[in-house]
Specification:
Structural class: mainly beta
Number of helices: 4
CATH topology: Immunoglobulin-like
Shape: globular
Number of domains: 1
Number of strands: 23
Radius of gyration: 21 Å
């Protein structure tokens, strides 16, 4: 962390109000430290979902979970594809209790935000603590959580500042969701949306269907599955493994001007460092966290998610693919691998009457905020390394000076 940021971190730690009179208090309907509570921690990101089962498990009272999760919003740094450090805003798992959350969250933003995974039927309490911008003490930006594509958000929990609650620096707000629809969603800050999203406040959010856990045979594939993208009723969205790839970009000039406290050129926004899961190729393929460079001013690794897909020959893979760029369309392909679209916009590929429009394709094109569910069937494919990349060849670079970068990763078939 540079001396400027160290100074403000030290001041923040000295000015912490004792927990007896103030603190960070996320809301949850149960004591997360009580016996019988399940704690699911993502090994890559450190995000923990605390849950308990409720309900009798009958048709009239289906068993469901109550889930609590706590995240922070602030600023931090990432490493671009050419090795440069870049300043940004982002989300991260909350660490510690009360004032510890504020101290641990300083400069600790993650790129992308941790992926959230819920189940259809869950009741979710998602708490957001705004730890402030340690590198930009001139800013007093509020933050929010907007669940992109979620159809039943009540106004106060939607995250759009014109009609919803937003979170001031040093404050915590808890969002409530009743999760009724499975699919591939996204979450992001909706305060000064273009700026905060460009700066990195973006993440994936997946909802698993009730059908998961039941054995169902897809007649076309002559194979039985227990995991599904949607409640299809016929096994057609079944898969053996699932991966999430978030496509996006960094406008390095915009980020640099932000760090230097200069006017921001919104009309000139154009990502020059395209990324998958917050990294440009070849960093997308660094599976060992120790191999991924850490930004010098970041207190910990900020780009935790690699983008390598691994499967065994014969398996069917679900690829949850999204475009979270604020300025560009991307076309994506998997060289030598068959792709089948089974969902789009967090909805199964079926019309109002139930007619399927699922189809095979050689490539998909996504606009900003667009999500697609793809099945990749590896039956009959020889083991080896396959490449997934954008066909927008100008985006296969890390900035202007380095080719063979950007939106590309590998699919390793064993």
């Amino acid at each position: 962390m540079n001396p400027f940021s160290k100074l403000f971190a030290a001041l923040a730690s000295m000015l912490v109000v004792p927990a007896a009179v103030a603190g960070v208090y996320p809301q949850c309907p149960f004591d997360i430290e009580a016996a019988g509570i399940t704690h699911d921690t993502d090994a890559a990101t450190g995000l923990t979902l605390h849950s308990r089962q409720v309900g009798a498990g009958t048709a009239g009272d289906p068993q469901h979970r109550q889930v609590c999760v706590h995240v922070v919003a602030g600023d931090g740094w990432q490493v671009l594809g050419d090795g440069r450090q870049s300043y940004g805003f982002g989300f991260a798992p909350a660490e510690g209790k009360d004032e510890e959350v504020m101290i641990n969250g300083i400069a600790n933003a993650k790129f992308p935000a941790p992926t959230l995974t819920f189940r259809e039927g869950d009741e979710v309490w998602l708490s957001l603590t705004n730890v402030g911008m340690i590198h930009r003490p001139d800013l007093f930006d509020q933050h929010s959580v907007h669940w992109h594509g979620y159809p039943q958000a009540s106004a106060i929990f939607d995250g759009v500042p014109q009609g919803s609650a937003t979170v001031q620096m040093g404050s915590t707000f808890t969002y409530y969701y009743k999760v009724n629809d499975p699919g591939t969603f996204m979450w992001h800050c909706h305060v000064e949306a273009t700026e905060h999203m460009e700066m990195g406040m973006l993440g994936m959010l997946n909802v698993l269907p009730r059908q998961d856990g039941s054995a169902m045979t897809d007649a076309a594939a002559a194979k039985t599955f227990t995991q599904f993208a949607y409640n299809d009723g016929d096994g057609s969205t079944g898969y053996d493994r699932a991966f999430t790839l978030q496509m996006g970009a960094v406008d390095s000039n915009f980020h640099e001007l932000h760090e230097l406290v200069q006017p921001l050129p919104f009309l000139e926004l154009k990502g020059d460092f395209t990324q998958i899961n917050g990294r440009g190729y070849p960093m997308t393929t660094l599976e060992n966290p120790a191999d991924m460079p850490q930004a010098p001013d970041a207190p910990a690794l900020s780009q935790q998610l690699h983008a390598v897909l691994r499967a065994t020959a014969g398996e069917r893979v679900l690829l949850r693919l999204s475009n979270l760029s604020v300025d560009a369309y991307y076309t994506f392909t998997a060289l030598g691998l068959p792709m089948r679209i089974v969902g789009r916009g967090a909805a199964i590929a079926r019309g109002p009457g139930g007619q399927s429009w699922a189809h095979d394709t050689a490539s998909v094109t996504l606009g900003g905020g667009d999500g697609i569910d793809l099945l990749i069937d590896t039956r009959g494919k020889p083991p080896g390394t396959y490449y997934l990349y954008t066909t927008n060849l100008n985006l296969l670079s890390n900035g202007a000076g380095e080719d063979r970068g950007g939106l590309m990763t590998t699919f390793v078939l064993q």
